[in-house]
Design brief:
This protein is about 10% helix and about 30% strand. The protein is built from two helices and ten strands. The strands form two sheets. The chain has an eight-stranded antiparallel β-sheet, with helices on one face. It has a two-stranded antiparallel ribbon with strand order 8-9. The longest helix is centred in the first third of the chain and has 12 residues, at about 30-40. It is globular, with a radius of gyration of 14 Å.
């Protein structure tokens, strides 16, 4: 990765501690631009990590998690979508990638942080950054006790982990 391929950093201040993400516009410029805009606008502030799968990933960024209607968690977004920017980045521990529906061009605000390795995501989900500080926070969230969510999956953290603030640190 060259210096010109590295963009802003975003510090996620969470109830479990802080993580710093390094964003990579050289491989996914539209996704980086979208994530930075949402962060600067305060969109992520107050959202929860609503899906946690130890050894796989933790997912957040859904504005519906600011409500008590857990049935809607995992379905929210910013009101627009970003077309896929599939790239060669391998989905391994620390990679930041965008969640989406079955439509490859449906990414909006939800993102996930890789806790383990998942080769099957490569080329199918847009990776756009990596954690550079706060791996112990990732581990804490990923290893949280979970319960069955309204959607039926056993991945909802028993104790909510909230993003208090997403702070953009320009490159």
């Amino acid at each position: 990765m060259t210096e010109s391929q590295i963009g802003a950093r975003v510090r996620l201040e969470t109830s479990a501690g802080n993580m710093t993400l390094e964003l990579l516009p050289g491989i996914a410029p539209k996704h980086v631009e979208n994530f930075v805009k949402l962060s600067k606008d305060g969109f992520y502030d107050g959202t929860k990590f609503h899906r946690v799968v130890t050894g796989f990933m933790v997912q957040g960024g859904d504005p519906n998690t600011k409500t008590d209607n857990e049935r809607s968690w995992g379905t929210g977004g910013p009101g627009w979508s970003v077309d896929a920017e599939f790239n060669d980045m391998h989905h391994e521990r620390g990679v930041v990638s965008m969640a989406r529906s079955s439509d490859p061009n449906s990414a909006g605000s939800q993102f996930f942080l890789m806790h383990g390795e998942a080769e099957f995501l490569d080329g199918n989900y847009t990776a756009f950054g990596r954690i550079v500080d706060g791996f112990e926070v990732l581990d804490s969230i990923a290893n949280a006790e979970t319960m069955q969510s309204a959607g039926g999956e056993n991945s909802k953290p028993l104790e909510p982990v909230t993003i208090h603030k997403a702070v953009v640190e320009e490159a």
